[in-house]
């Protein structure tokens, strides 16, 4: 079994306007990095279009209709101060959902050892009824529900190392102890959530880091909190909300991680998946807005997925 990469040209067609950090060039940069000889054995698959029925497991019918009505026939429209949409945005989001759900299918069936979904827009800020923070639909959450509804998996863990807290994922699973949400993130920072005291039904574990924290603090938090929580939960599937904006070059965060940190954390999560999840791990792209930092971090992440 190989590592599978889901990609699609539609992800470049979600337009957000000049100067917006969540831009098509993000996909261009990481795809270029994954063209290196190291990645020639990646199993590259075009992302399928997901279904609105999959979205309904995490977002209401009314919410999906509201997002659909916001999509302009031409030009761009603004959902909030940060979140822009254009004519192909809904289609791009559907393909991201399709890829995340297909990735779950792959690792459950054994068609792939693990999966990386190189999609945009990101999703972890999308709450059950609110689009925000560049996000329309919460792909990681939808993939978790897909694993439970379609494959009967009981316990799904979502690990989020984006520099920003995934308030949307927390909101969706706040009362559901069958899904563990563990997040390392900078605090204080957008969106203002993610305190240690936010625990939901005991299934929410927030591990805030301080501005300027780097390798030592991140790895200590991972080793002392994230990994023990995962071991205690014994997940049937590990999903990674893989944001790379905790990289020291990123303009939207203040943490000082390097590519080796993402490599290390990926390896640790693969160990958890090996022990408890029959090796099943699906990683979904979230943030990362410096093109060099993003592409190099994604390369380190995917290389580790490939070697196991």
Described by the principal axes of the CA atoms, the overall outline is: globular
Q: End-to-end span in angstroms?
A: 11 Å
Pick out the low-confidence regions: none
Helix count, DSSP H or I runs of 4 or more residues: 9
How are the strands of the biggest sheet laid out side by side?
Answer: 2-1-5-10-9-6-7-8
Major sheet description: 8 strands, parallel
Helix content: 25-40%
pLDDT average, as an integer? 98
Provide the structure class: alpha/beta
| Rg result | 17 Å
Strand percent estimate = 15-25%
Total beta-strand segments: 10
H/E series: EHEHHEEHEHEHEEHEHEH
Can you give a write-up of this model?
The chain is of the alpha/beta class and 308 residues long. 38% of the residues lie in helices and 15% in strands. It has helices spanning 25-33, 52-55, 61-70, 89-109, 139-151, 167-172, 215-233, 259-276, 291-307, and strands spanning 3-7, 43-46, 77-78, 84-85, 114-117, 156-160, 179-186, 204-209, 237-242, 281-285. A hairpin with a 5-residue loop joins strand 3 and strand 4. Helix 7 (215-233) packs parallel to helix 8 (259-276). The chain is globular, with a radius of gyration of 17 Å. The model has no long low-confidence stretch (mean pLDDT 98).
